[in-house]
Each structure stands twice: as structure tokens, then as C-alpha cells.
Amino acid sequence: MKRITAIMLVLAMAVSLLAGCGKKESDDGVIRVWVGEESAEFYQKIGDEYVAAHSDFGYKIEVKGMDTGSIAGTITNDPTAAADIYTVAHDNIGKLASTQCAKPIMDETLIAQVKADNPASFQKVIYSTLNDKSYLYGVPYISQALFMYYNKELVTEEQAKTFEGLQEAAKAAGTKAITVTGDDGYNMSFALLATNANDHSTTVKIFEGAESVSGGAKGESNCQGDDTVAIFRWLQAFAEDPNGFKWASPDGWDADLDKDNKGVLAVIGGAWHYNTAKAALGETNLGITLIPTFTLTDASVEGLSGVKAGDVYRGGTFADCKCFMINANSATTKYAKEQELILYLSSKEVQDASYLECLNVPAYVGAADYIKQCFEEGKVTESQYNLAAAQVSMAEWGIPQPFITGTLNTYYYSKNAPAVFRAVIDQTAYPTTGDVILQETTSLDGVRKALYLIEYLWMHGVTPKEFPAALPEKA
Amino acid sequence: MASNKNHAPKKNQEKTGLFEGLRKKCENFGKRFADGSLGTKLSHFIFGAGSFYHGQYVKGALFLLIQLGILAVMIFCPSINGTPYGWKALRNLPLNNVTEGGDFDPLTGQFTVGSDCKLMVLFGFVTIALIIIYFMVWNMNIQSSYQTDMDLKIGKKPNTFREDMRSLLDGKFHVLMLTPTCIAAAVFTILPTIFMIALAFTTYNSQDMNDLGTNLFHWNGLQNFRAVFTGEGSLGVEIKNRFMPVLGWTFLWAIFATLTCYFGGIILALLINKKGLKGKKVFRTIFIFTIAVPQFISLLAVRNLLGEYGPVNSLLQDWGITKEPIGFLGLHPSDSESLAKFMVILINMWVGIPYTMLMTSGILMNIPTDLYEAARVDGSSTMKMFFKITLPYVIFITTPYLISSFVGNINSFNTIFLLTGGGPTYTGYQAGGTDLLVTWLYKVTIDQGSYNTGAVIGIFTFLITATITLITYRRSKAYNEEDTFQ
After folding, report:
1. Residue to substitute from B427, B434, B448, B450, interface A, most A β-carbons within 10 A
2. Under a CB-based contact definition with an 8 Å cutoff, are residues B235 and B444 in contact?
3. Could you report the per-residue pLDDT of A86-97, keeping only the tens digit for each?
4. A93, A161, A251, B484: which has the fewest C-beta neighbours closer than 10 Å?
5. Residue A104 is nearest to which of B100, B104, B333, comparing CB atoms?
6. CATH 3.40.190.10, domain A147-317+414-460, yes or no
7. Which fold has domain B235-480?
8. What is the pTM of this model?
């Protein structure tokens, strides 16, 4: 019995030891690709077709669907276990590049295609520095921006064009007008990045002209221009109104939007919220349009010289792109073929096909024409068309999420800057307990100080020891 | 008092024993070298030399292999993901000479990988562990050779390798059984724990690491601990302002959650075991159903019931009792913290009481009936019998359970995380009104990537739970009078 027990024990130890043995990625004749779950089948088919048509390619392609929101985290945790090519939102490029999880793209043809096809706004955010040299890291192939879903049963098309119209509809329905899907820095962009409806202007700057975190300049940030102050004062009043803005319910923003609950009439969200919004309202009740405009009131501009009552602003968004990137741990012998494959997967033809099959909005310049053409030819439904058209239109009103080597936008998303926004909108002290930095965020001085605090957090990652006697003038 | 007096000399004996043992070991060491054979003397420098000298070739080869293997690792410093083991790992441990890396060769797509401080610390500790193992094996090989010398002196034939192996299946079977457990404990428990403790003395914080651009962090001494009082560092303000409130609530929660479930369970068990009650099995089964349903499902169901759009709030509003939904679980920042705290304790009773009920039922059925009969003969009332027999008996048996339940409640992640998510939240902080140390730890590490702060919270949690467990258990009757119930 003891002998058998001993043998079993040795076997168990051997198996557990072997189970822990990993194998680093080598050239096994397969190029593995991670894309969004909704697109995996499509890209597998496209990849197989490419291999069949190019006998000299020499590699098999294996596509796996992943949660694109968590791909970057998965890769940084264990880059050796990640695919050769993966897709992430562009704002992850800095982090993946600086942690040596991504390989620069050097193929001249691919670089030329990226330059020729993509808008200038995307081109600014797909490069990253490596030892002071700038390299192309991400190849855009999907465009995405925030827009608005609304309840068509209770809100007319005209009312959906302005926050005031939504408020009017909410008053009639006895509900709140609008909510957001989260109170993080990304979703708060609807207020922070609101731009003048006439000329698309804003004084907001986030790490503009930044170089590198590793000793480089952090660029310029501005969050306390008169327009931003006025916008947040307007939002404070809108949030105070019983039929105005509402933070998403802990039961979920979809519970708010649900046609039976009628918690809110509209929600600002992205394409990735489409199925949930459709489930909450039903396809026939689901309206999709741009983030509405709002008009600054007398109260919101009081004491400010850079803006005037009656100025119209449109809610803003980050206009982002998803990119293909190459894993730094992929076998170097695959490098050329990986770039060749990305050249094909990011081509206009494949992006168009991806829109038709997976509703991925193409990233290239002029995609709006193709989207319209598809609708006119009856290739997509009305709501599918609206979904893509709203994103393409909102992209014109937004800026890509800023980042530089080392993901400086971590400062934008963390260090409690989004929490200060929340304090401003709720008109509470900040923080709400313990050592209070800001006693109030209701007065003009309080709002400006809060916005100064946010700007300081973006730039320094810590709260200032004290507020300057006179805040820097940034009208 | 008598028992205390008895303990004191025992402790002194233990201390004397420890020093005596060390002294004897030192003496033995010198004696082994002086009295040992040439093989034993050589074993001090070449592992397995003594075994070879005595003709135990397989054993000798194994010792030598271990020596050469460890020395090879120490000298040649093999690396994983560019981070070396061996002497280089020891050199890297102070984290002084770290580089970002990143020299890129466009032709091959290869570039130099920068330092990974996380691996540097880990491999440094693994190397230290290897050095400790080296000296342990060194001692074993000398001891083995010397033992053989002694055996030969009394005319005993040295063991062959086969005989040594056979002894592992016989006289030393416990060694065979315990070795894998010890190795597993060292690799999967002790090493990660040491690593985690070490992180508390570093700047390993994903937000701060982005300042450096790569996987780089530094040792920063006691700064993370000082933050509890000074508010320094990345999450310093959070730690300073929220640590004491969270700690206080953690204790309050643990006390209430433990006592309500404990006494609730006892009362329920007494009711169900009451003589003359019909359908005892049915009642027991009903309560066991609550155990059969996975806890997280029960908790999420309750969360939905009490949610903003849940049936409870809908009914209250439909009946005109309330105009706005009540924030039972503190899910909105403006909700009442006190109500949320009360609700989690109340809901916890639903999931906790059946466990105590089940256990107490078993205990009640085993209380010797002659105790009750004797009490009845003496004219005791039912209440008196409960307080003098039933309750002391149950408490005596369940004290270890009570302590483990208290410690378990300090770390009760599920109940808080699934019901309130730690809310109501305070703007500007991770730790909300109902967050326990353990849920706060989760938020700090998983949501904020602040591993150093998380390690500090983890160490504090450990110190608190370990201290409470030790003190209460050692003072309990269940420990001091474990074989008797008077």
C-alpha cells in the first residue's frame, strides 16, 4: 500500500511540475490573431481566404475572439502567452510599446497605406517613441465614438437634438432626461470635450504636444478655460433639475433606460452598448443620434468673459480607433509576414466587408460615403445605419484619447481626476470626507478651483499642496 | 491561576532548550569535522564525497548533482524574460541598476528587453531560497557521511541506496509523505507571501510605474506604512483618511455578523429540536435549502430585490409609502451608510444562520440527557437548564468555530462585495461606507493597480486576524481544557 501511495505521489508531483512548464512562442508555422469576439469568425474566414490565395505566404492563420476591453491587460500580464497580432484601442499603444509588449511596424508599404488611408487625428496617436525614435505601432481598422441612444416612444427626433428638448420630454414623462454608462473619465468626455456648435472650438487641452513620460515633456493641458467652467456650471444646473441629468443606476444604465422602468429617456454610449440598449428599449423604440447640443444660460456664464449666454455647445466625445499591433514576443521569423497580413486585414476592402458582416465602423477617410451607400442599397437596417452614421459624425466633433509612451492618459483616468468631475456635478466638497481639499464646488471660484485641481492631477499625478492665490488665466 | 504557573516554567524550558540545541549543534559541527573520516572531511567541500568514500555511489552522485546544479545557477545565472537568477539576481535585488531597454533592430524586429523589477525581486528571493537549500543539503551530506562513519565504528554495514529508498517506504514513510507538502507550501505559500510582504516596501504601483514608462519600481522603506499617518504617496490620502473608518467597521461587522448568526442559529436549532414539534425534518430541510443555493446567487437575488428598480422599491412607491426609491444597500453615494450597514448585517443572517443551526442541532442531540435529568431532579427551571447546561455545552464545543467564524467575517468578501460593492462611496476614495479591509484591498489592487498599498493593507489584516485568533483561542476553555467539559 505504501509503495502504491509513494508511486502515486511521485506521479502527482511530476504531473504538477510539468503542468507548470510553459513554452515560449516559437515559429510553429501559425500566425495567431486576437480580435473582438464579434469579429472572430469574419477575420478567420478572411484570413483563410488570404492564405488560400497566397501560396507563398507560408503560415496558417488562427483567429480568436477576445474581450477587446481587457486584451491590453491580458497582454501586459503575460505577453509570451498572447497572440502574434492583437487588436486594442489606440490609447493602449503607449503602455504596450513602453512595456515591450508591442513591436514597431517597419514595412514601408504598410506605413504608406496607413498614411494614405487614415485621418490626421488618428495618425497622431498611433505612433510611440522608443529610445527617442518615433515608430508606427498601431494600424487603425475600426473607428469608434460616443453618441446617444434614446427612447423614440417618449422623445421626438427634434427633442433629441438638444439637452433642453430632452428635458422637456422628461418633464412630460416624469423621468430624468439622460444618463451616462459610467462616471469614469471616458464617459465624462461628453461634458469635458463639449465644443462650440458653430466652430467646433474648445479651450480644453489634454497632454497636447507631449513627448514621453520617461523624462520627456508632458505637453500642455488646460481644463479651466471660461468655456469649460461655463459648461460645468450649466451641467450642475441640469443635474440639479428633477428632469435633467442622472448618474447611472447601480442596477445598470440599461435598467434606467428600460422602457418599463422609464428611469431616463436617453443614454450616452458607444456601439458596444447597442445590444443592451436594444434589449432595454426594443428595436422599434431605439433611437440613435448625435450627442445633443445645449445652450449656455445667464447663470452659467455669470462672471465669465470668454463666453456669453446663448452660446451653443455640442456634447463631446473621444473619437478613437482600434488598431492591429504586433506582439513583441512573437517569433522574429514571422515579423515580415505579420506585417503583410496586417496590410491586408486593414485594407479598405476588408474594413468595408467587416462593416457589412460585423457592423465595425471603418476607420479610413471617406468611410461615411460607403456606410450611406450600404444603407441606400438596403444592405443594412436603419438602426444599423444610424449606429455607424452617428459614430462617423461624432468623430468629427471629438478628439482621439491622448496618450504617449507610458500611457500618460493613466493620469487622465486615474489619480482621482474623474472623481473631482463627479464632485463638481454633484456640487459636493472634494473629497466628501476626511481631509477636504475643496470645501465647495458650487460657486464660480469653487468650480474653477476644481477644474484647476483636475488639470494639476493630469500634469502631476498628485494634488497640489495649496491653491495659488490667483489661478492661472486660461480663457 | 495554577495553570498559568505551570505554563511559565514550560516556556523557560523551551527557551533553554532552543539555546542548548543551538550550542549542541555547533559543538557537533566541530566534532563531525574532527572525528569524521576523510570522506566526511571532504564532504565539507565536495557534496557526496563522504558517500563516495563509503561506496554509496548513487547517494553521493545525487548530493554532487545538487551542489553542481545550484553552483551552476549561481555562477552562470540563467535568465527568464531577460531577468537572471544566481549572483546577478542578488546584485539586482537592491533594484539600483535598472534599465528601460528598447534598442530596436528594424531588420529582425528584435529589441533589448528592459528590466522587470517584479521578476528581479522574485528571482532574488528564489536565489536566496536556493542558497538556504544549498546549506541544508550541505549539512545533510556531512551528516549522512558522519552517520555512516559511526555505523561502521559499531560494525554496522552502510546502507545501500536501495535500502535508503526502502526505508522511505517503511521507517521514514512520514518523511516521504511530508516532503512534497513542505515543498508545495514553500513554493505556493511561503514564497508568494514573502514576495507580497516585500512589495509593501516598494513603489510597485501601476500608476506610479507609468511615470517611469516600464516595469520599474524601487524600494521605498517604510513609506507605505507611514502613509497611514502622513498621507504620503500615490494612495496616501486614501490610506490616511479611510484606514481607521474601514478598520472600525470591519470589527463592528465581524462582531455583529458573527454573534447574530451564532445566536440566531442556536435559537433556531433549539426551536426545531423542541420536544413535541412536528415536522422537524421538514423545517431542517427548508433551512438547508438556503445552504444548497450558492451564496452568491442568494446575495445577488437580494441585491436585485432591494435595487433602485427592484420589486421592494416598486411596491413601496406603488403603495404610496415612498416617493423616491430607498437606497437600502448604499449603492448611490447619497444613500444612507447606516441603513446599508444595518441591511448587510440583516441579510447576512439569512445566509449565515442555517450553518450554525445545522451544527448546533447536532451538538444539542449529543448533550448527555442525564445532565438534564439530574437538573430536573434538583428542581431546575427550563431557563436555568438552558443557561447552565445547554449554552455552556454549545459554547464549549463551538468556540473554535466561533473564532474561525469571526476571522472569516473579517475577510467576508462575498457578502459585502456582492450586496453593496462597498457603497455608499465617498467621492475621491476607493473605500466606501461598507467596505471591509478585504474588499478595499481588492479595489486598491485590482481597480487601482496599487500593489504596494494592497500589500500594506494585507499585512495589517493578517496581523489583526492572527492576533485575535491567537489571543482568543489560547484563552478559551476549548483550548485550555480540551478534553473535559465540566
Report:
1. B427
2. yes
3. 999 888 887 788
4. B484
5. B104
6. yes
7. MetI-like fold (1.10.3720)
8. 0.81
